[in-house]
Amino acid sequence: MSFARSVLYPLVTLFSIGGVTSFYYEIKTAYLVLGLILLLILHFLPLGRVSNQLKSGLLYFSFFVMGMLHFQEFYRLPDAHIQNQAELPPNGLKRIKIIKPLGTNFFSYTFLGELRQWEDVGVEGEILIYQTKDSLTIPFQRGQEILTKNSCRPIADNLNPGGFSYKNYLKNSRIYHQIQVNEDNTVFYIKEPRPPFIDLLKLREKVEVKIETVSLSKESKGMLKALLLGERKAIEDEILTSYTQAGVIHLLALSGLHVGLLVLLLMYLLTPLTKVKFGKTLRLIMILLFLWCFALFVGLSASVVRSVTLFTFVGIGHYINQGKHSFHYTVLSFFILLVCHPPFLRNIGFQLSFLAVIGILWIHPLLQRLWNPSHIVLRRLWQLTTVSIAAQIAVSPVSIYYFHQFPSLFLLSNLIILPFFGFFLSLSLVVLLSIVLELTIPFLFPFYEKGVYTLNSIVFWVAQQEAFLFENIYNSLTSTLLLYGILICGVFFFIKRTFARGTWVLLFLFAFVSNLVIEAKKENAVNAFWIFHKHNESILGHQKGGVLYYHTSHEGNSTRLLLNFTNSRLIKEKRKLLLKNSYAQKGFRLLLLREVHAYGIKQIAPTHILLQKNIKLNLDLLLEDYKPKLIIADGSNAPWFTERWKKSCAKYKVPFHDTRKTGALKITLESEE
User: Fold this and answer.
1) Is there a domain that residue 419 lies in?
2) pLDDT (0 to 100) of residue 188
């Protein structure tokens, strides 16, 4: 225990901090390598006068440098990467291998591919592939290779502030480009020897097909796919939203809870092996083989890989009679996963799952000390309560930071569902096996349907208690980190109450409150006009302090955009802004042009002109009459109109902003004081 606290935990923490630092500061590899060698030499040199604390500090700092070096080198793109091939012809012949399917919608199939060749040049790098879909389209298969001359395009970023950036999400995995292909692109299929694990993935696809053929409701089929195949997309959005609002969305993510229950079931079924010679060893090998085959079977999804890695360490620990040190195995598996795949560090699921496990292992025992009921039922209920609270405490700051909501009825949901969820998961497994083996078990499907209906009904009821769902909560990154500082210091204080530890709690609390005051003061000083981008719509906003005054051409279509914006900053309220054809503030005069006759108002003298709804006008004459500082075209205009306007603005040397290409426009206004 002392070794883990004094060596393992600090080293892993500093390695992770080094990785995070590399995202913001880049240092030449040669300098990092030289510094690492120097630190290790100083640590291992037999310098008698150097204290052990200093030598330990050198070792700790070397892990910080290792983290920077490892992450920086992982994200350093080789010369052959697609990002470094600007000189190659855009329409050159490309050879791409299909890695795996990512999803489908009404218009296309989406795949992850690996670029292998561009004309006669060997290239590398993963790429997003969109295969145009119609009734006759045969989707690509894993392991296939395709040839196409279509050009690769950079992945578009989110055009409005506060929204989810798919570009940054893919950039974390070193994916920067996308390509659209269809049957008319002269795409040829090239067969390639299949890797062994492809057979497991093919088996999974066959299982999905079999599930679709049985007489179960759509909700039950989706539940089976989510719980046992990791296909959460098979569940309807309305159901997913209800599980999120009820605070039990983790039940639908194939992760630690599900893998742990499967491991317990396997250990119980294989208990007879422990009575024979080498039985424990055989049981461990069989469980580990099952875990990794299962991970391959569901497609090596990030959540399953995390869980299987953790339970691998836990299983080995139990085998060598060291099973009580689960926290050590959690930290060790965290470190191994970061070494093997650095993008995990910025993966939301990775962060939430490990925080939940750490909360259960670290905070749960402290809560258990508060009460020790003698009755077994009360003891079990109290244990479930403390586990749920511990996990929620650990994940809440990050969850609020990303999702801006807090389901206060999470405890009620977990207390009602978790005691029976193990049975429900086992029942799901029995149903799946009966489908795969084509067994007819009387009343099994109706019983399962009833279970799915009951589970969803409970979740729906909890989710409908809107008074207990706190939404639209803003929490900055700084506030999130300070909250974890308070939490960590608070746990240490409750473990051992000392003056020094209590002081650290108060210091972090003071820093947190001070940061809130500074952020609020900074936000109250904001005075800016926004022109957002929305396809076929016009959405404008004036943020003045903590209030957003907004105007939209279609209220229903702008809800999500405005919600993302307000959730990304300290906006206290939203108010509708009534606009006709102009809007004026100190030093700022905006003219909105939807109709030709609207711009003949000389007295406005606009500083900015917004063109909307494909207005047909002589822009050259307009530029001569008004001489504005900026011409803006929003998403309500067609691309061919904006291209023509852009040329006119270039002729008169007037800046032009197209929200379709450069995203939302922020215009900082003068203070009215």
Assistant:
1) yes
2) 67
Tell me the CA distances in angstroms from 168 to 40, 157, 481, one per residue in order.
Answer: 35, 8, 21
Write down the pLDDT at residue 52.
67
Amino acid letter at 175?
Answer: I
Give the model confidence (pLDDT) of 236-286 as tens digits.
888 888 888 888 887 887 777 778 878 888 888 888 887 888 888 888 888
Q: Report if residue 673 sits inside a domain.
A: no
DSSP one-letter code for 193: P
CATH for 86: 2.40.50
Q: How many CA atoms lie within 13 A of 657 on its CB side?
A: 21
* Contact call for residues 664 and 543 (beta carbons, < 8 A): no
How far apart, in Å, do the first and last CA atoms of the chain sit?
A: 61
Collect contacts of 315-322 with beta carbons under 8 A, ≥24 apart: 315/263, 315/284, 315/287, 315/288, 315/291, 316/284, 319/280, 319/281, 319/284
Residue 99 tokens, joined: 């890695």
- Same domain for 166 and 51, yes or no, is no
The angle subtended at Cα 141 by Cα 136 and Cα 143, nearest 5°, is 155
**Residue 534: which domain range?**
527-668
pLDDT at 349: 82
Amino acid at 71: F
Q: Which of 239, 158, 180, 159 is nearest to 167 (CA)?
A: 158
- Residues 436 and 210 sit within 8 Å (Cβ to Cβ): yes
Same-domain pairing of 578 and 492: no
- The tokens describing 646, both together, are 């852009």
Residue 1 pLDDT > 50, yes or no?
no
Task: Name residue 355's amino acid.
Answer: L
Looking at the structure, do residues 447 and 363 belong to the same domain, yes or no?
A: yes
Residues 501 and 538 in one domain: no
* Confidence band for 624, pLDDT divided at 50, 70 and 90: confident
Query: In the listed set 134, 167, 193, which residue is the last one of a domain according to the structure?
Result: 193
Q: Which residue has the tokens 């470094």?
A: 84
Highest mean pLDDT among 128-142, 291-305, 539-553: 539-553
- The reply to whether 521 falls in a domain is no
Reference 259, options 220, 222, 218, 302; nearest CA is 302
Q: Which residues contact 409 (CB under 8 A, 6 or more apart)?
A: 246, 247, 462, 465, 468, 469
pLDDT score, position 4: 52
**Half-sphere exposure of residue 557: CA atoms within 13 angstroms, side-chain side:** 14
Residue 260, in any domain of the structure: yes
Count of domains observed in the chain: 5
Average pLDDT over residues 609-621: 88
* Whether 315 and 438 share a structural domain: yes
Q: Which residue has the higher pLDDT, 574 or 626?
A: 574
CA distances from 109 to 44, 127, 146, 207 (A): 56, 14, 15, 20
Side chain identity, residue 136: L
Residues 230 and 350 placed together within one structural domain of the fold: yes
Among 193, 224, 256, identify where a domain stops: 193
How confident is the model over 482-523, as pLDDT tens digits? Answer: 999 999 999 989 888 899 999 999 999 999 999 999 999 998
Q: Which residues pair with 417 in a beta bridge?
A: none
Dump pLDDT digits (tens) for 403-450. Answer: 888 888 887 888 888 788 888 888 888 888 888 888 878 888 889 999
**Number of other residues whose CB lies within 10 A of the CB of residue 355:** 19
Together in a domain, 242 and 259: yes
User: Would you say 508 and 481 are in contact if contact means Cβ atoms under 8 Å apart?
Assistant: no
Backbone angles phi, psi at 490, to 5 degrees: -65, -40
Report the CATH number at residue 656: 3.60.15.10
If asked whether residues 509 and 577 sit together in one domain, one would say no
pLDDT digits (tens, 9 = 90+) for 25-57: 888 888 888 988 888 887 777 665 556 677 777
Q: Which residues of 174-212 are buried (b: 16+ CB within 10 A; e: fewer)?
A: bbbbbbbbeeebebeeeeeeeeeeeebbeebeebeeebe
